[in-house]
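Protocol step 6 of 9: fold each sequence in the batch and record its C-alpha cells directly after the sequence line. For illustration, a two-sequence batch is reproduced in full.

Sequence one:
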Amino acid sequence: MTSLADFVVRPAVLADLPYIDHLQRKNSGTLSFYPRIVFERDIPGNLVLTAWLNDEPCGYLYRGPLRDAVRIHQACIQYDVRGYQYGAALVRHLEALGRAAGSLRILLRCGSDVAANGFWQVMGYKCISVTAGGVSRGREINVWEKSLVPRLFDLSVLPSSRKQDSSRWRKSGVRQGHRFARGNEMHAYRELVEQQ
C-alpha cells in the first residue's frame, strides 16, 4: 500500500510554471496543448493544482472554474510515480474542492488511444459521449463525467478505444491554414481532409 504521508496538493504558483510546462511537453502525445501564457493567466486564479511528493513536484491538474460543472483541462503525474495512487489523490482533492463549492459534476475529455481512460474509469468516471477528435491524429475523444451529488440515473456509453490514425490527414496534403480552426471552420477543414 502506498503511503500518502509525504504527498501534498497545493495551488500552483508562477514559480511552478517551468515544471508544469516541462511535464506538459514531455507528455504531449497524450495531453492537449496549452501555451505557457494560458498557465500564466490561470495560475493566479488557483486554477492549477500541483502535486508534491517529498517536497518535489510530481504532477499537476489544470481545471476550469468551480461551477455546476467543473472541467479538467489537463491532469498529469510524472511517469516514475504513476500507479502509486498519487494521481488518484490529486483528482480526489479536486473532487473535494468541487463538493465544497457546490459543484454538481466534473467533466473531462480524453483521447481514445490514451491509457488514462482506464484510470478515469477506475476513479468512478462514466463515459457519457464519444466525439470526433482532430483530423491530424485521427482519433476519437471520450468525454468522462463524475457526479459529485447522488443521482437517480447515471447514463453512460462504451468508451472508444480507437487507435490514433493520421494516415488520412498525411495523404490529404492539406496542412495549411485551418489546422487550428474552431467551430464551423473546423468542420469545413475536416471535410476538406476527408475528401482527399
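Sequence two, same batch, same settings:
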Amino acid sequence: MRRAAVLALLLGGLLGCTTLPRAETPEAGGLIEARALAWYPAWLLRAALRIAEVPGPTPIRCGVRTWRILYWSEDANGSLERASGLIAAPTCARPRAVVSYQHGSVSRRDDVPSRGNLEGVAAAALFAGGGYLTLAADYPGMGASTAPSGYLHAAAT
C-alpha cells in the first residue's frame, strides 16, 4: 500500500513538472532522480509505425514525454538497491489508465527501456501515444542497478 502511495505521488509530480524532489532518506519506492529524456510528437510516432510496417490502424493520438527515473528498491534480502525505469506520459490529455510494461529478457545491462532501447521506445509510443501512462522497470541487475543480474532468480525479480 505504501508503494502505491509513493508511486501515485511520483506520477502526479511527473505530470506537473520536469524535476522532482529527492527522497530525504532512502526507503523502498523512494525517488532518487527523475530526468526528462525526450518528447515525441504524435505525427512522428504515427510515421515511425508506418515505416516499421506495423499492421492495422495506428492507435497514436497523443505526443509522448519520457523520463528516466532512479529509485530505491529492495532486493531478495530486504537490502536497499538502486533501480531504474522509464515513465512515458501522453501530452494531449490526462492519462486514461496506467500500463505497467514488462520488457523481454535481455543480456546487456544497458539494453533496457530507461536507456532508450527500441523495445522501450516502441512501448512508450504505443501505450503513452494511445493515452496511457506507461511504466517500464529495468529489472534488478539492469539499467542503473549495480546488483548482479537477477535473471532466472525468482526472489530477486
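Proceed to step 7 once all outputs are recorded. Observation for sequence two: Residues 62 and 129 are 5 Å apart (CA to CA).
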